[in-house]
Amino acid sequence: MDSWVIGMMLGVSVFLGSIAVVALMWAIKKGQFDDQEKFLNSALFDDVDELNDAARVEKKKKKAIDKKKEYRPE
Amino acid sequence: MSEKVKCDHCHLEFSKDVMIEDDGHYFCCNGCQGVFHLLSDQGLDGFYKKLGDEKLAPPSQQYEDSANFNAPAFYERFVSVNKDGFSEVSLIIEGIHCSACVWLNEKALLNMDGVIATNINYTNNKAKIVWDDDVVKLSEIIDMIRAIGYNAYPYDASLQEEKANKERKDYYLRIAVAIFATMNMMTIMVAQYAGYFTGISAEVKHILNLGEWALSTPVLFYSGWPFFKGMYYGIKTKTVNMDTLVTTGSLLTYIYSIYITLTRSGEAYFDSVTMIVSFVLVGKFLEALSKKSIADTLDIMGQHLVSDVKVVENEMVVTKSVNDVVVGDIVVVSIGDRVALDGEVSEGSGNFDESSLTGESEPIFKQKGDAIISGTVSIDADIKYRVTKDYAHSTMSNIVSLLENAMNNKPRIQQIANKLSEYFSSTILLLSFFTFIGWYLYSSNFEQSFMVAISVIVIACPCALALATPVATLVGLSIASKRGILFKEAAQLETMAKANVLTLDKTGTITQGRPEVVDAVLLQEFDTSMLYSLVLNSKHPIAKAVANAIYDEKLFCYELESLKNIPSQGITAMYNGKMLAGGNAKLMRTIGVEVTSCSQNSEFYFAYGGELLAKYELFDMPREDAKTSIAKIKKMGIEVVMLTGDHERSAQKVAEMVGIEKYAFELTPETKASYIDKLHEEAKTVVMAGDGVNDILALASSDIAIAMGNGSDIAIEVSDVVLLNDTFSSLYDSFKISRRTFTMIKENLGLSLVYNGITIPLAMAGYVIPLVAAISMSISSLLVVGNSMRIKLGYKD
After folding, report:
1. What is the value of ipTM here, to two decimals?
2. E-assigned strands of B447-510?
């Protein structure tokens, strides 16, 4: 067996693994594991309504920010 | 007995005839009814579906005016403005106990105009709320939380807590990288070692080495960064610490391994680099994880501080910030208010709860001319008082600043492992240096001398030493927590093992904290239901105790007329045209009943129509297992002292009952703390067990503070150890477990030193080949872990 095959396999597996690690680190940084209870219960509160609400809140926030900008143009 | 139905809001069950019926729904109180209607109006009744069978606490309706939250002083302290120009506040929400509660709060707040974002943490009930202050005010937000049946108060999410969270997260990230790399490294090492024995082509070995190099680099420089920082601070303060050894060891090994890889000669040690960094990092993380922050405690304390008071000015009542009140101002206190400043009553009278200062739950009656102390709560008093001390000098804010001080200066006994590692590190570095010089002089071969010197550091690198303490304490902690003893910080096991004085609070710690009927003298036959209906109308602990003592299924509740609660005397009422009276001797004399009292205990008399019917004696009894446990603790060679705010007679009585010879009485929170400071001066290590707000200063100044599980929030916060099951035998257990753990720590340290004592000379003589190094390293770690498990022996549960 050519030794470059070993090198390639080593490289690919470490690369794939590191993608998972980076994803985990991103999730930790974003605070997804800060509240373990909420994290575990989130499956129970994951309905169409919740998604709609989340979208509405985003819109509301955007509107509020726009309004702020009108008030105090900086 | 009528049928029981569930309240449609809080799900508590009550008999049907006391419930409020409303359109087919039943409610136990107006509060529940209000919340229920509010939720259906807002379209939030999905809450009940999510709630399932969980029970809620019925909403309370007594809150201080929420307008206080709009005061500029309040905004300045708690509200911050984020970069989008929105206001942010951190709140602690009371009453959250299931995920449906979190859902409801978030939904209800987001439905409000102007609220931009809410994030409620279910685990610690802390919430962060972002809103547009031009649209909605904080008071409206708080009102909404209260309207749906919860309560909220702000806390200062100041740097400390944020910092602790950030630090923890930082560790998670570093450990994730370290563990990932170490596990991959292990698979490569299987190939390397297999090759070492059965032969491996130089080409393959080179590739494996390159792979190891790639994996160990992030571990050393990313995961190991805290060690580099630690070494830097060590150099700055001119001390050699564990970090110095870990960093020099792993860095030198890393450089040496790169050299080996590039020159394709000998064996690389990249695996040791990752292993050492990962192991020591995990050990360090375990330590950091259990460190509690002072900030959290002070947050809870903030609840007990009043920020605004009502002051009489030109015949008008105005709300003022406590800092603006000057000596001589007249302050109004209404029922349920907490007193903010020390003063003297100038008008009115009533009962005050002084338990936060004395620990005694009995209400104290105050009238014109009596001193009034900050931190106490008005039970039924509507009074005015003249301020005699400004806010900064008032008792409660004094206690808070003393507490802050005491917690920051809490005595920290130097941990044995830290001390050891300092000597150890410098010795190893010196040894390796001399090895290099010796070998160089002996063989004049730079490469070989360098290699041997490095192998000394690699061999000595303290995997086992780093694991010795954390593993033993972890096992100790898990045994303790199974028995309902919660150590908040691992290092406390070690401190507690060295303790030689135990100080105990009386009320609520040694005793149960509530009076019990110990003797009943029935002078005449009478209908017990009369007494029962009477005492049910009082919230006084003595009346409650009597009600408990005479309770029986067959009792009825009679309709009583013209019920009167007479402060610090008792209760009277009319029944069948004659007067019912229950209370102390003073009350009996007032209504013209002759009594002779001579008991040491509290007494409760009961008279009907001017005739004395019964007499009850009450006493706050010690906990059942107090006496035996205290005897066992004394046997361990620990001195037991009782500290109480109570007077001498009852202190002496309780001390005798539980077998304590030494006690101090009539102590204030400050003198309790100074008593402990005095013990410190005698070089004693003090454990303090308490339960109330009056104990917090003493708890904070002791080396180890133990709180009873049913103690006040602050006491639990300040404490290092919490006895969840609230028994005295677990107090004894906590001493036993900590001593056992400490013995194990010492054994572990001994083991790893013996291991080093054998291997270091071998390494110095140049006899250590990589295989021996790897095997001996894992064996020593296994020995330490295995030995720690022995703590569990003898605790079979």
Report:
1. 0.76
2. 485-487, 501-505
